[in-house]
Amino acid sequence: MNAREEILRRLGDAPPDAAAYDAIPRPYLRRHHDGDVVGLFAERAADYRAEVHRIARADLPGVLGALHGRYLAPAGLPEPWTAEASTVRDDPPVSIAELDALDGVITGCAVAIAETGTVVLDHGPGQGRRAVTLVPDHHVVVVEAARIAADVPEALERLSPDRPLTFVSGPSATSDIELSRVEGVHGPRRLTIVIID
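Above: the chain sequence. Below: its structure as tokens.
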């Protein structure tokens, strides 16, 4: 069998060999932080200009209820979270025009990365379709402390490679050639992260 045939054989319909995958040598450092990963995540996310709140789970409805305006709540977002908030459910999906008229969106996340202050969405239940996280001016992400991974390798182990992934590190921002920063060009200009313990 030549190299081409071997590659095509590997791309076939056979299920991946889990034992062979687990046997791949990974000599690199797999975890960089062992301390307070929740605190590290909050610090790094704030460095990216996200507004960060760390609260008790019981306080979440009140914190979300204090948001000003109407927010979209994607299908699958736990209803008790938004019991005191003014929300519109994305079921059936609202139009882009309706989405643009709202003040923001409230989502959960698949995982968060302490080392980089990044929130990762795989657009599963409670995270919404991609448009709901790009169109509104304000994105509120509820991050359960158990979903915070210490660093990128640990986070990637928790994610499914067959899901669409969106990595969010702070509000949307870009700079022109003179390094003038502009926020909100490619997505929300405000990012609020609510960490619940």
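The chain is about 20% helix and 25% strand.
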